[in-house]
């Protein structure tokens, strides 16, 4: 009689239930795995055999056929080791055939029978739950991740022997998810930043409306330092958002052992030498890239002009669609990538233009330098802020800045207003408003219209720039808890745009 157990696989960030059937017959000894199993699954045979023997059980000298169904689904990874091993032990009556229909079993075995952590446990657990599976057997390294899902029982083990014992005696209570406080004492904080009030304000506005922002400034002025502190003023992720983020980290295997759900917005800072594949995702195993690892958080592209032009070009579509679809011969996956983009650059080749030090670049050199930003990137930036280096007297006079938690509470309030406003519009933030929504929610009075008209004509703005100014003005009004966009709000929004047109374009 064939033994059947539940396990699962994943593609992209979606789990798929797989059943493992083990059939053992008399005949020439062999061990075959069928059902579109890739090479990583085939290697499983060696691990399963060694771990059965090294855990003190008997490996049958018979004809062993393992079928992974459905056969037409591509199956990768090493998480089938454990269900295959258990299937063999049951089919040979070394353990009684227990009723495991309500269990989903996954785990990689080492040659000595230890259970190693596997990738994709969170999407698999979610899929199992959808299929009314209540009990999950996982390696101890995946326990936090699996038990982060409510209303299921997660049983976590160190090795094959422990699992066998559990199946025989069912004497274990489910693993209890620990909530750990991740805020460390040396965490970054906005209060570390001296001065730079206008830039900090711009970052607050950007965070409140989830706007993309570009910081321009000379070397050493603190651009990188400020960017790294942005996550500290962003609210915690909602449960749904946390699940989306954690699924992505689960399939890349980068959740650490003590980490259940990721509840803080991620911050990703890919280097300018990054390849398209590492930014966008893909590769042999269809893994998410940096833009998806930044989902619901911040993507910081430091020294943006050092990135290769073709690499920046590939960001155009995901920035627009907030998701990325990757096609391969064996499948097609879509990863979400809705993030706040933060960019930093020097203003010119020497780095000193518009700052307190002297710039020795020609007009032509400068224009050519900044023109690399044009097109796909410049068009998608809502706020521009100039970061000047601090003088010694600034440093001397500066008191410590406002702590992140105060700024964060203002950001939270502004985001709540947006959530309420857009509850039936299918978006979350002001930055996502379509032109129709801009018309609906960004009405300007007479005085505001006059103001924006004069700037529009003076700097020869595009309609795109015009929409962006209105969205930012909406966010500033929200930060001030004002239903109406007032002249001061609009003036501030124009300020985040004006210096760019005045000095650089
Ligand atoms: N406003 C500030 N308050 C406190 N420290 C600062 C400030 N600005 C700069 N610093 C200090 O200077 C260091 C360099 O700043 P940072 O690397 O952020 O500059 P940058 O603008 O990114 O320069 P580059 O263009 O060379 O990348 C920081 O690590 C920090 O120690
Ligand atoms: Mg820097
Ligand atoms: Zn210069």
TrEMBL record:
Domain AAA+ ATPase residues, every copy: 209-396
One MF term in the entry's GO annotations: ATP binding
InterPro entries linked to this entry: AAA+_ATPase, CHLI-like, MCM_dom, Mg_chelat-rel, Mg_chelat-rel_C, Mg_chelatse_chII-like_cat_dom, P-loop_NTPase, Ribosomal_Su5_D2-typ_SF
Gene3D superfamilies from the UniProt entry: 3.30.230.10, P-loop containing nucleotide triphosphate hydrolases
Keyword Ribonucleoprotein tagged: no
UniProt keywords, alphabetically: ATP-binding, Nucleotide-binding
The keyword Metal-binding belongs to this UniProt entry's keyword annotation: no
Pfam families: ChlI (PF13541), Mg_chelatase (PF01078), Mg_chelatase_C (PF13335)
Family: Belongs to the Mg-chelatase subunits D/I family. ComM subfamily.
Name used for this protein in its record: ATP-binding protein
